[in-house]
Specification:
- The chain has two helices and no strands.
- It is mainly α and 60 residues long.
- It has a domain of 40 residues.
- The N and C termini lie far apart (46 Å).
- 0% of the residues are buried.
Amino acid sequence: MTPMTTVQQPSRLGVSQRVAAALVAFTLGVSVLWLSGFAPISAVHNAAHDGRHVAAFPCH
């Protein structure tokens, strides 16, 4: 059996594209946290509960 070797490919994204992707991810994360802070707790709980069911993760 021959050993497998991996070749690392250089990233094809430039610095500006990485910064843009990081800013989009940060903005999305802060938006979710900010919006869930103003939502009723039952709505946040039900959304998380439904997400567990969608992911086929047992919760009961």
